[in-house]
Amino acid sequence: ASGLRLGSPATKDNNGGQTWRNEFMTKAEANGLRVDYMVVHYYKKTSAESFYNWLKAIHDKWKRPIWIKEFNYGATWTGQPASNEAAGIGLLSYMNMLDDASFVERYSVFTWQPDKPIYSLMSVRNPVTLSSSGIMYRDHQSPIAYTQEVYEQITSLSVKDNDVSNNILLYPTVITNGVFNIKLSNETIETNFKLAIYNTTGQLVKEIIRINSEIDVKKLSSGLYFVKIKSDIGTVTKKIIIK
Fold it and tell me: Does pLDDT of 186 surpass 70?
């Protein structure tokens, strides 16, 4: 109802996390439930390439962008000791890789390591001071991969926005035969009208100016897409899942 996107539960970077994630997503898709992006944790001390391959496998399997809710270059529970300098260098290598990964929308370092300050970006007692890694993370300029373009929570939709949504019916939202239907009110039919379909990375994959009641998406791969419909009376965005 808020218009905001819905992410998956966050899962660990081990085999148990993978098993749980796959079971959850399989059941969610079978029931037509909405999951707009995948949320994960990652603490392995490895190469940026290995981290990338792990993320890419999740993206390829579930066809959704990724948010990394917690990550660091190692952690106290991984049994992979490192020096402060090595931890900072490793963390930066991860961040540079994430900045270039088109399917990663957001990431957030986890720093609460009071028993092993190697992996901590700041002190956990007053006065709070930044470590060398903390200064690096603070000053690192990452590109903006995703900007929320829908309504803020608790903010009512305008009458015009509600009118547009009520005048356009798109079904089914979970597509199994490569075709979805669109039904327009008489008011909407009489306006200039354009339909565009975007993938989860924001790439335009299909555009239609002359609208028929059936929209063929057989050439699109399975996954989540955003259907943006523009008319003289306003614009509305709807989501579809192609299976």
Answer: no
